[in-house]
Amino acid sequence: MKTISKYYSRSNLWALFLLCAFPLHVWAMIFAFRDISWVYARTVVWDAIGVLSYGMVFALVESVWLSVAVFFLGFLISLKWNSELRVATLGAVIFLVSLIAMLVQFYGALGWSISDSVISFFVLFAHPGRTVYLVLLIILSPIVAGTIYLVLGTGKGAQVLKDAIEKISLLMMVYLVLDLVALVVVIIRNIQGSVK
Amino acid sequence: MKNDFSRRDFLKISGLLPFSFLAPSLAESLGIRAPQTKKNVIIIVFDAWSAYNISLYGYARDTTPTINKLAERAVVYHNHYATSNYTTSGTASILTGTLPWTHRAMRPNTIVSSEYLDKSIYSVFNDYHRMSYSHNEWVNTLFDGFQSNIDEWIPRLDLCLFSSYKVIQNIFKNDRDISSVAWQRYSEIKKNDFSYSLFLSRLISYFEEKEVQRNDDQFPRGLPTSNTDNGFLLEHAVDWLTNRIGEIAKPVFGYFHFLPPHEPYRPPVEFSRRFFRDAYQNILKPADIFMEPGGDFDIRKQRAIYDEFILYVDREFGRLYRALESSGILEDTWLVLTSDHGEGFERGYIGHMVNAMYEPLIRVPLMIFEPGRRSRLDVHEKTSAIDLLPTLAHVTGKDVPAWSEGEVLPPYRQQSEFPERGVYSMRSHETDKDSPMKAASIGFVKGRYKLHYYFGYSVLNSQKLIKLYDIESDPEELSNIVDKEPEIARQMADEVENSVGQANKPYL
């Protein structure tokens, strides 16, 4: 416990969880709400609410899972940094990685494609898949490093991030209330099912 | 008349009563089986299995070597028709003994009308232990409608390889359907769509792919899959089925609907490339009005892979048969082998999702392995999937339900008593339960003739299209004789129009 408290305060941990939950919830909610109409068209409104509720509960579980992963990632950051700066840096990383994950889904879902010449370039290598990941690492590393430098190097950058975290935390509390409602819906549906 | 049975005799015999209660379990533990009075009924359906591609029915490729041998102890139906060319309508007809325009499951992935939820093969066998399983999600949708009459509905994913759905369905046991739909939307990364999850979906697909890779070397074209699962092995389903039937109380009624040889065609390595570059020649047929002309090479290749997939079905059915035989279950069982619809590789189409009614799409296998039968009997009458329910009711000593539209099949009814009737197949996949059919494809087989009757399609400018074939002299349906035999065409078309009119009447 002592080791943990060196890295994070209790409020830091809560902020970290909210930062992880925010992009996951926004993304899940956009698409869960989009699906309501087609689920309703095929079944009944209670089932449509069910799909939305399960989506929210799954997002909550994924948020916990991601928070644990990011929590351990924080131990890689030097103790010389104060805990707020650590959380701000981790927050920046979370947003960056989330943004990349969103772009990857857009790439698949909207049929974006890499030009044939780029593909034929990668095919020249013995392990094209590994080469793609290596190139991505080379491109992403400076972006992540630059973000961290922004947080570390300029007090202004850190302040902007901290302000953003506060605002997101507030918004996230609303989402957590929705999660709670969703959890109640899921419990009711499962109790109803067993009675039926 | 002198009564030799004294009071003393009665008391002596009464002393044996407690033993009589113990006797059945004692006999069972000693492996002694009393003859079963009620015979089990097991229906095995392989999805999208066309009679056209089965060597038992004359196909040039030897696709069913095992079944050919087993057929020597079966009643083999040579002109058996599914009621549709796709799963929902075809399966609902097997289960209700009614035509699609009666049970109303005409839209894909729907259940039958509320009137038929309690009028099914499950309600007929209500004194049996009724089991069901299918790899096919659409069949599970039908089971969902009948579930109050099914004692054991095995979840689809139970017989699939590792899948995160199993975890979800175990956690949310009482709300499997909606939790699975939500999980699918949350966790599945699909082309042209988004998943709700940003990270978990990637992690899950990584683990699922690992599981698939473990079996990859056995399936060069990938594992057989259906809908949302990450693969299944027919072997697992067959092993599970034989074990389960062995351990539960009899009599059993089981409806088991396995996906192969439905696409994606994924034969195991043992059969892979068996029919590539063989001497088989596709019969060239002109592209049909509903189909885009396709490359002949691709059709030939897909047909070869499909035929190889049938070899997998053949082998696994053989294993199932032998397992039931060696366990002694077979001698107390009516075992039925059939399909819900066919599959075609001709006229510019591959598969069955087409508005056509050609023979490969609707003529399916039917074999009945009767308890104690040691010889083969071939039946050439035109029979329909709706006949299965009344036949099984009849042979197991039940009343044939009045609501069934089928007939008891020969030889269980004298062939001379078998009525001269037309056999219908249809596809009207945009018709709702409470709407009349506005567009439909109807195949109507009567005697030696087959009428194709299409109406309401935009490609036909909402006109009707009628074709007539003499399927005895022209089984490949190459020569449309509607102009040569106008009177026969008119009579059959009148009959179809009358039937459609009757079916539409309540919904107009």
Write a structural description:
The complex is a heterodimer of chains A (196) and B (508). Chain A has one domain (2-195). The termini of chain A are far apart. The longest helix of chain A has 41 residues, at 155-195. Chain A is mostly helical. In chain A, helix 2 (10-42) runs parallel beside helix 4 (83-109), helix 3 crosses helix 7 (155-195) and helix 4 (83-109) crosses helix 7 (155-195). Chain A has helices spanning 2-7, 10-42, 45-73, 83-109, 116-123, 128-153, 155-195. Chain B is an alpha/beta fold and 508 residues long. Chain B has three domains: 39-161 and 223-421, Alkaline Phosphatase, subunit A (3-Layer(aba) Sandwich); 164-220, no CATH class; 436-508, Arylsulfatase, C-terminal domain (2-Layer Sandwich), CATH 3.30.1120. Chain B is built from 15 helices and 14 strands. In chain B, strands 4-3-5-1-6-9-2-10 form an eight-stranded mixed beta sheet, sandwiched between helices. Chain B has a four-stranded antiparallel beta sheet with strand order 11-12-13-14, with helices on one face. A two-stranded antiparallel sheet of chain B has the order 7-8. In chain B, strand 12 and strand 13 (449-455) form a beta hairpin. The N and C termini of chain B lie far apart (72 Å). Chain A binds chain B through residues 23-24, 27-28, 31-32, 35, 39, 43, 47, 50-51, 53-55, 58-59, 62, 65-66, 98, 101-102, 105, 108-109, 111, 186, 189-194, 196, and chain B through 172-175, 177-179, 181-183, 185-187, 189, 191-200, 202.
